[in-house]
Amino acid sequence: MSRAVRFYETGGPEVLRLEDLADDALRDGEVRLRILAFGLNRSECQLRDGSYPMMGARFPTRLGREACGIVEEVAANAPADLVGRRVTTIPKVVDVQRYGVYGERAIVPLAALAPWPEPLDPIGATAVWQQYLTAYGPLVELGRLEAGQWVLVTAAASSVGHAALQIVNALGGQAIATTRDAAKAAHLRAAGAAHVIVVGADTDIAAEAMKITGDAGVSLVLDPVAGPGLERLAAAAAPGATIFLYGQLDPTPAPFPVVPVLRKGLAFRGYTLWEIVLDEALLARAQDWILTRIADGTLRPKIDRVFELDEIVEAHRYMESNRQMGKIVVRVDRDAAGARNATGERP
Amino acid sequence: MSRAVRFYETGGPEVLRLEDLADDALRDGEVRLRILAFGLNRSECQLRDGSYPMMGARFPTRLGREACGIVEEVAANAPADLVGRRVTTIPKVVDVQRYGVYGERAIVPLAALAPWPEPLDPIGATAVWQQYLTAYGPLVELGRLEAGQWVLVTAAASSVGHAALQIVNALGGQAIATTRDAAKAAHLRAAGAAHVIVVGADTDIAAEAMKITGDAGVSLVLDPVAGPGLERLAAAAAPGATIFLYGQLDPTPAPFPVVPVLRKGLAFRGYTLWEIVLDEALLARAQDWILTRIADGTLRPKIDRVFELDEIVEAHRYMESNRQMGKIVVRVDRDAAGARNATGERP
Hints:
The structure is a homodimer.
Chain A: E1 2-6, E2 17-21, E3 30-39, H1 42-49, E4 67-74, E5 86-89, H2 96-99, E6 105-109, E7 113-114, H3 122-125, H4 129-142, E8 150-153, H5 159-170, E9 174-179, H6 185-190, E10 195-198, H7 205-212, E11 218-223, H8 230-236, E12 237-245, H9 258-264, E13 267-270, H10 274-277, H11 280-295, E14 303-308, H12 312-321, E15 327-331
Parallel strand pairs in A: 8-9, 8-11, 9-10, 11-12, 12-13, 14-15
Antiparallel strand pairs in A: 1-2, 3-4, 3-6, 3-15, 4-5, 5-7
């Protein structure tokens, strides 16, 4: 028996319940983890409230894909020497009903295991794959950002936003961050933004970006919002720029700015993490790139706040408040996972 | 003195006037051509009616960018041995007021000259660069079409559409052509379309494309229409597909299909010929690719109809009728440019 988070219907944070569950038997290609900590991601709020369809899941269902832990047990056909090893999980699992990691124990497929990102503690190790892999795709693999280029990172206070700011700097680029919250501006500058645009009702992001870049425009955009703002993103773009959309926080209609797209040869490119995690060669290259830069301190996960397992409802509520700057982590093993005020920084 | 087409205000085809003009003196880097024939392009109708802004032009202005002719005179700093040479013009000129080629004589900059596409006659030679360069960019240089892939070519009866069908076949791909005119279907199949979708009020292009491709979807789309049809193009696309927009025949709002773009990792990419013609290395590569395939007969310009110079108003009217299938050419020199029913095929 161990405690795990489940929910029986879609709805607000309060649908999440902490329950005692018997441990299921392992199937081929699976391992059981003792979870040290897990990370919260926006898509889990959307799965929970039903705004993001859960493929093939039946209720009650578990939740969560990003965790770190210790291998307790392996299926008969899996390498026995994994037992006792510290590992992290790559968010590549679709079936959260079976593989959800919100809990004291979780079953995950071997293919979802990843190395521990040394020298991070368990809180920091939980805040690596989703954010850095998401930002790596558009900036490194697809967008091939070059030194000196400008990148517009919208909704930059998120964990992916922080990861993007760090990767832009690692590549020698310059980041313009947007946020709706003026109180976050100084923080975003400290986190690596060369400029911050605080977006109010009358803010023209494109005019600001053009002023900042000396009318050159930005070479890449990372945007999780979509909606009517697409037009201003096109206006902020340099000729030949690519605007990566990796989410749809604004579900209102998004008129496509055909004229600037034609005139400047722009690309609007949809992107999700699945492109990286489902391609073995790409994933290996991305993991290597990220692990190297965590090891040398170039990339440092930014932890916003640590919750306890029995505070899961509050943790989801906090994510939806949009007050956070960086990653929200739930600590499961108090002894192993470090202090509640952990920073994720190297010890 | 020589005759040339000019117009004094934007408007319908009737604003075009055939006038006797004195020959301007050549400036540095220019040559004078005796025009044998010139090609009509949709963008010239749009410049004429004011729907496409003419950069820096004052009235009266000449028109046209795609012609073939014989070099009559060169500026002092230009290679004298060009005189008497048969050449074509690349549509890379912005200043149609000075460099418009609708006429018996035209001044063009040296940089706009291109080799004669052997073994074509003057009618065929006028129907090469705009159409093949436009289709080359998305299919070869940017889209990197591979053998066996499906391409959706919308509004395929245009000259660019024909060029695209030929290039898709040259690369071993398979083309699905759309047309609103059922009478053009058989012709498009003969022109290289593996399948033709005749688009009526109730036609679901995506459903048809999915049926044709066995639910795989198309890897590339070439679309000059935009407008509300973008959503169906996204629905017809395979995961990872790129949808190239190279025009905006439908200026009504184009809602951006965010969900399929995210889910399938699609790119909507604006593209114009300028990307190729203003990049010397790219242009050289493209010209070589096209000339080689014209020489061996892989690419064969499809001439729809040949007009005389004094029929220019009628020629523009015909283009706007959308009855054509392939290129509309105006023959200027009756003796040199070949028969009015020329096919553009090798002699």
